[in-house]
Write the structure tokens for this entry.
Amino acid sequence: MPTRDFYEVLGVARGADDAEIKRAFRQLARKYHPDANPDDPQAAEKFKEIGLAYSVLSDAEKRTKYDQLGHAAFAQAESGGGPGGAGGFAQGFGGLGFEDLFESVLGDAFFGGRSGRRRNGPARGADLRVAVQVTFEQAAFGTTKEITVPRTEACQACSGTGASAGSRPKPCPTCSGSGQVRVARATPFGQFVSVQPCTTCSGRGTVLEKPCAECQGQGRIRRRRTLSVHFPAGIEDGQRLRLTGEGEAGDRGGPAGDLYVDVAVAAHARFHREGQDVVSEVTVGLAQAALGAEVEIDTIEGKMPLRVPEGTQPGDVVRLRGRGIVAVGGHSRGDHRAVIRVEVPRQLSPAERHALRQYAEARGERVDGAERHPFRRVLGR
């Protein structure tokens, strides 16, 4: 048996009128509906509690009894002596699902068109999603690729109706074309009428006398469709393209869904991207870094000259302006950033060693000299 006061459950005063009670019920039902809280088991219990409170306070006779006796007014039903048998409160409404109760009170607008009145109308097709990989250069400059997508399409033989040539879908004899049937159920609190999809036509409202042989009456058929997809210049890894109407076919004349293409940009051996800039490492010699030099480097457009300034230090960045990646849908373009690595030679010829020793002496730097290591001269090191 419930323990919380029903007025407290709905958050209304004891003198609240029917409109206030219904308004409070609607707000709470939307908030705690299980579909809106799939990972919260407490929301489902709250949802049931709200429905139970409303079923009592929205009925004048039951509300009067509740105001006089509280929960004890329905103790007989709870103990098994009243209508509905044992567990009247705990088991809901005599077998009537809580969603049925909410639908009978709030109607299709609350449930987003779950009832048969909406099911027999056009339905949009499902969206599809595929992943496509492009190279670093293709992402930088843009490309067009052909992709193959398995999907359902409207059957050409019957134009999506599901009926064979010369025949048409006819209204369902069970539901008279409405796609729904009304079911009355007795509960401890009276009779409730709920609306359910018609089982004869599965909520469509129509039946087929001669189903199409091509699609077996489904109106749709599975095919593998090849599509041409354009990837704009500057697209980045993880971005998504949307192709409107290229998803699954709609049902009963509904529009097709969309196709979403997730872009994966393959890693490059020499470059990586930072925003619109392309970044690479460039190795130069010790003398080139110290004295300055012009070297040739790889870019996304091929080999280009790069001026290394005099006195460049390891880790310094030299830019090639406007040689990066263009912004998607724009005209601005990033730079190519060359991160300088200075190569220190591991082995030196006698001439190189002599030259470096002179350089060290000129700068006053102490280094290992051949005079203090005679065996190195013999070994040529």
Summary: The longest helix spans residues 41-57. The first strand starts at residue 128 and ends at 134.
